[in-house]
Write a structure and sequence with these properties.
Strand order of the largest sheet: 2-3-4-5-6-7-8-9
Number of helices: 17
Oligomer: single chain
CATH superfamily of the largest domain: Aldolase class I
Shape: globular
Largest sheet: 8 strands, parallel, barrel
Bound molecules: 3-methyl-2-oxobutanoic acid, zinc ion
Structural class: alpha/beta
Helix content: 40-55%
Distance between the termini: 42 Å
Radius of gyration: 25 Å
CATH class of the largest domain: Alpha Beta
Length: 518
């Protein structure tokens, strides 16, 4: 029997990005998309072009730079949405329009206020219209799992006749149980007469923790495309985690012997890490495949077993997902290291920087190596990330002073450079050192009463009392919740950098003009 390919449709930049706290700027989407291309995903859903100018521009930019994956935009079954998707995708070498409409009774009645006949007509029209922009059109029947089966078969048959090459079966609310979901795929195969002209795809949400199981069950019954996200991010409890689906197919190739993917699994861990760094949200330690503990053997009996024979407790090797165990704790460079060693290390960590950036960073590295006894991979990564986010900052820190103690009134002064223009120094008294620093930043940026600090975290990213501190701030700027990160040996400075990072993201995201949520 010849093996069939399961296409990986990555929706990290659309469904994933849609979740609160996961919004990404255009530059961040481009960085992530290039990593997804390296990972070898077949299709990158880069956004929803009609949702906002920001989304449109991000899709357009991703379409310009990514060469090996198909670039896709989501579009409601409306001409305006489809036209925007088509325009945003113009530069792509391979493009797909993914149009959708809800088909379940509850969605049709209460959300769309449309009859099934109207929905079917709209779906067919949308697919035909999308075909004017590309031959590669995917149709999703939103909330397919809760839809009437006969209606679902009918609409799939009609959209395939209209030119859809992929029909997607979403479990939009994460309600399905694996056996039932697999059965639905089998029923679609048996009841949609022209199904041989399309690929069956699935899109599973994780509300009951079953998104991956449902996707695998669907593959077993004939689905040949899976929608997934890195780290399983997505609306509510998220989508099927790409790394879990891919590794299940690989590790259990004996069971899934009829299929394969073309994912470069060694890029799984770097992709997961990059997403964490961009969004500021880390995966839980026990997360399958990419969690910190996924390859850690704590119990003595397990350690003994692994040392005697690795396969006693390990079903896959860390190297298979691109994880070099303990690489994070290696002492990598010292103050005598030269430019070349530094550049090589930056590249080893997965960053491709310009000579100018390397030069700037090398100076910072020397400065850090003078202050710190030991320089770890994480320190270098923090320098790189700081440089990358500094490039995107509208405002730079010129200087700050903070006075604090238990017998003085905490006082902070900050001076910024906003779009290359120096502000006056602003001083604020009262609260704690972070409180008055953030208030001073608010004054300097003229956004004093327009933001609220929702979450504040500081952690040491390496070991020892001279470790670099990473500050992660979640800030609500007039209803936009944005996460910013900053790094420094000084945690107040790290917090200022994180604030400025979040502020720049907010300014970039306010280009958004979402009129209707989906
Ligand atoms: O969950 C869902 O149904 C979706 C569709 C737009 C595919 O995200
Ligand atoms: Zn979804």
């Amino acid at each position: 029997m010849e093996k069939e390919k399961v296409f990986i449709f990555d929706t990290t930049l659309r469904d994933g990005e849609q979740a609160p706290g996961f919004s990404m700027t255009k530059e961040e989407k481009v960085r992530m998309a290039l990593q997804l291309e390296k990972l070898g995903v077949d299709i990158i859903e880069a956004g929803f072009a009609a949702a906002s100018i920001g989304d449109f521009e991000a899709i357009n930019e991703v379409a310009k730079v990514v060469k090996n994956s198909t670039i896709c935009s989501l579009a409601r079954a409306l001409e305006n949405d489809i036209e925007k998707a088509g325009k945003a995708l113009e530069p792509a070498e391979r493009k797909r329009i993914h149009t959708f409409i809800a088909t379940s009774p509850i969605h049709m009645k209460y959300k769309l206020k449309m009859s099934p006949d109207e929905v079917l007509e709209r779906a067919v029209k949308a697919v035909k219209f999308a075909r004017k922009f590309t031959d590669d059109v995917e149709f999703s029947a939103e909330d397919a799992f809760r839809s009437d089966r006969d209606f679902l078969f009918k609409i799939f048959e009609a959209v395939i006749d209209a030119g859809a090459k992929t029909i997607n079966v979403p479990d939009t609310v994460g309600y399905a149980i694996p056996e039932e979901f697999g059965q639905l795929i089998e029923d679609i195969k048996n009841n949609v007469p022209n199904i041989d002209k399309a690929i069956i795809s699935v899109h599973c949400h994780n509300d009951l923790g079953l998104a991956v199981a449902n996707s695998l069950s669907a593959i077993k019954k004939g689905a040949r495309q899976v929608h997934a996200t890195v780290n399983g991010i997505g609306e509510r409890a998220g989508n099927a985690a790409m790394e879990e689906v891919v590794m299940a197919l690989k590790v259990r190739h004996d069971y899934f012997n009829e299929v394969y993917t073309t994912i470069n699994t060694k890029e799984i861990y770097p992709s997961s890490r990059l997403l964490c760094q961009i969004t500021g949200s880390f995966v839980q330690p026990n997360k399958a495949i990419v969690g910190d503990n996924a390859f850690a053997h704590e119990a003595g009996i397990h350690q003994h077993g692994v040392l005697a024979h690795r396969e006693t407790y390990e079903i896959m090797r860390p190297e298979d997902i691109g994880l070099e165990i303990k690489s994070g704790s290696n002492l990598v460079l010292g103050k005598h290291s030269g430019r070349h060693a530094f550049k090589t290390k930056v590249e080893e960590l997965g960053y491709n920087l310009s000579d100018e950036q390397i030069e700037k960073l090398f100076v910072k590295f020397k400065d850090l190596a003078d202050k710190k006894k030991q320089v770890f991979n994480e320190d270098i990564e923090a320098l790189v990330l700081d440089e990358l986010s500094t490039n995107q900052k509208l405002a730079q820190l010129s200087y700050f002073h903070v006075l604090t103690g238990n017998t003085v009134i905490p006082t902070a002064t900050v001076k910024l450079k906003v779009e290359e223009v120096e502000t006056s120094p602003y001083t604020v008294l009262g609260g704690g050192p972070i409180d008055c620093t953030l208030k001073a930043l608010g004054k300097a940026l003229n956004i004093e009463d327009r933001f609220k600090l929702k979450e504040f975290n500081v952690r040491a990213i390496t070991y020892g009392k001279d470790a670099i501190g990473e500050a992660k701030l979640t800030i609500d700027f007039e209803g936009y919740e944005v996460v910013g990160k900053g790094w420094s040996i000084d945690i107040v400075e790290a917090s200022i950098k994180a604030f400025l990072n979040a502020y720049s993201k907010y300014v970039s995201l306010t280009k958004k003009n979402i009129s209707e949520s989906i």
